[in-house]
Fold this protein.
Amino acid sequence: MTSPALDRFRQLVDRPETELNLAEAALAIAEEEYPDLAAAPYLGKLDAMALEVAREAPEHEPLTDRIVALNRFLFHKQGFRGNNNDYYDPRNSFLNDVLERRMGIPITLCVIYLELGWRMGLPLEGLSFPGHFLVKCEVPEGAIVLDPFAYGNSVGVDELKRRLTLVYGRAVTEDEVLALLLGCASRKEILARMLRNLKAIYLNQSAFSSALSMVERILMIHPDEPAELRDRGIIYQGLECFRAAQADLQRYLELLPKARDARKVRERLAELSGRVARLN
């Protein structure tokens, strides 16, 4: 399966991490939904926004003051906010829509926050926190964790523990929180998380072709990722591409022969074998 949008995304993520433009690649995700999308105007918009906020917070000012200025500019002056009312609207995951509507979900708001901060020279990093993407900034006193979905407010250890407890269903220690804060998400990992969000939305809508295009992109970033191969196989089965489904599910079992769902996958393969045999 290929398309101009898919080829464009492949060209971008084939670059080394240090040469990957996160915003450009995020816009390339949206090209599948908007084939005529031009990235340049949106990248220019990010440049202009960064210049405006940088004038309010020059580089010689303390980091914390510049973060406050970025928050004030992005969330109060520009009016960006989280879309709590329609969280699973796919437009919340398309960077062009988020820039136009000034509304998104944690990860797309974080992408905009990171892109503006990087242009300002702020040492920001994406934090792939379970359940809710965040941003981390190293300051002389330590690290600040910021939540662009909550107007860029800082998040303390106690709140992070509370959030993890909700995700894990058990009490979480401070050491577990601190361990998560040590690892930051690469640009390619951020893109993969955006794609997984969209894949889940499309699968929930039974939009299998759209879900497939998201999985294809994830596998460009993480080839032979077992869970994505399994999901692609299931999607192929839903699209009645039985040979392709069979190949992906067989590969999944080769990579994870003792997977928790191995029995169910083998049952799918047995069903697919019969369907493939009838095709011959």
